[in-house]
Amino acid sequence: MQKKISLFKLLFLVFFLFFWKNIALGFSIENQNDSNLYLNKKNSNNFIFLKKNECFSFLKSPKNFFQKEQKEQKIIISNNNFIGFFYKNRFKIFYIVKSKDTLYSIAKNSGYNYYELSKFNSIKKPYKIIIGQKIWMGDILINENEHNFTILNSDNTILNDFSYKFIFQTPLGIKNFLTNNIKEMKICFFCNKEYKKNNVYLHKKLFNFSNKWFWPVKSKNVQYIYNDISDDKKIEISGFKGQPVFAAASGEVVCVTNSFQKYGQLIIIRHNKNYLSIYAFNNSILVKEKDIVDEKQQIATMGLSSDTHLPGLYFAIRYLGESINPLNVLPKINVHF
């Protein structure tokens, strides 16, 4: 029972570390205040909505939304998943949290990870979100050079008369457009490739992850362990107490803790958007949270397994939050099972 509780705690921690923006809209539209509209101004122009081929219906602008900018914020679009507000030269796209949503599930379905969404929405640990909360998913930039949208009629025919200049270039154009029967029209965004390509933030590398993995311990004594109940896959590598433990790939240390008795001193490293590596049973820790580490950099020394009380390293890899067999990722060697 104690093992199951410890495993559950670890999975819960990994869940929040992995799964999951200048605007924090954590409560209702009516209760917005100016102080939380743009919490992360530095990267606001670089956060681009990644979903493609999204179509939206037009809505009327509610009162009191973006109170100071109400005169400029007039076009609102929505579909089953997102709502967008036209502001200056862009649609700011939000996801409205539904029952059973997590920051991870929202991020995964939208092409991000929890780290990006939490950063741009200023959502801090433990990344709690509530039903009805608006999660900023990025912007769709509108300009006359990109031709990245199409206006459709109620029968889904393209209305060629509606262009960037006709609708968005001037306040008069917006006003004239809003006087039409916009309820029968849809706007479809069919290409954000160029914006994604030029998106500085999304392509900024905090570390150089080359998808190359290395064994965290120099040993051929490896035991693969699979838990069919939790679908947890891991390996335990035998060695000697005090033996160096190395980072299996370059990345950022996102967790250092000794809160889980079963795992002893625990380290979790994040590798790009997709991977986490987990190191447990450590005797001493040589890194701290937010450290950037290189592959094969020593991060700890080996301690004792909580099960056998013999020297060993617990090692696991998660891909998009799912446990995967580390032996399918690490370089092939003649291991001794």
UniProtKB/TrEMBL annotation:
Residues 93-137 form the LysM domain. One of its GO terms (molecular function) is metalloendopeptidase activity. It comes from the Bacteria. InterPro entries: Cell_wall_metabolism_enzyme (IPR050570), Dup_hybrid_motif (IPR011055), LysM (IPR018392), LysM_dom_sf (IPR036779), M23ase_b-sheet_dom (IPR016047). One of its GO terms (cellular component) is cell outer membrane. Belongs to the E.coli NlpD/Haemophilus LppB family. PANTHER family: MUREIN HYDROLASE ACTIVATOR NLPD, PEPTIDASE-RELATED. This is LysM peptidoglycan-binding domain-containing protein. It comes from Buchnera aphidicola.
